[in-house]
Amino acid sequence: MNMKLPMAAAPDLSEWMGQWVRSFPVQLITLLDWELFVGAGIVASAHAMFYYRESRERGMAQAKLETRLIEAQLQTLQRQLHPHFLFNTLNAISTLMHRDARAADRMLIQLSGLLRITLESVSRPQIPLSEELDVLDKFVQIEQTHLGDRLTVAFDVDSDILDAIVPTLILQPLVENAIKHGVVPTGRHGRVAVDGHREGDMIVLQVTDDGPGPSEGAMAMLSKGIGVSNTRARLMHQFGARHRFECHKQPGTFTVLVAFPATVPQEASE
Questions:
Q1: Domain for residue 91, yes or no?
Q2: How much is the pTM?
């Protein structure tokens, strides 16, 4: 006897297609929303990186421009010292020539050596303290030729700061003022002391003379002179608020103090 087994019901293709068609827009929208979200995130990240890089490059360009401006201002201030110093020295030679031609001749030779050194350093706003002291020593020799036994200049600079970087010609105007205002007016022997040491992370330089010190009027004039005003301006340009420029008057002495952050050349620190 033949028996026919019941066949499984075939899936209704039209019904399945209908369900797929109805659900496809939802799946498509969900997929598109995710892709749009990811794409928007990528675009936003790319824009953020672009603007960050552009902002950083603008900041670096601005910093370079400011650095060049400061360097130009420093060179202008530094060059201002040379004719001022040269005029004063030539005036001293002219005065000395009338009473001691040989001494005046020696001073001219010393001046030529000093000018050579200062002209070599004119393009450098900063030099090692040891070089600054060499320049100052030659200037002092000129002044001692001019004043003779009336002038003594003593140096007391710690050896551990000789490699420190200092503003070029930072000491010469201060020593010149000490001689001009603290020694010459007294008509007697005068002493100028140049001291240098480290205080924490600062280099401290002092120039002291044993004269009576300037009066209030003379002090006002002194602060407006090329040497002092130039020194103060250069310290402000190079170190901002991280510097000291002080004048201290005590009975029998007058001191000018400058201090700024201690730095050493790369090769000296290795």
A1: yes
A2: 0.66
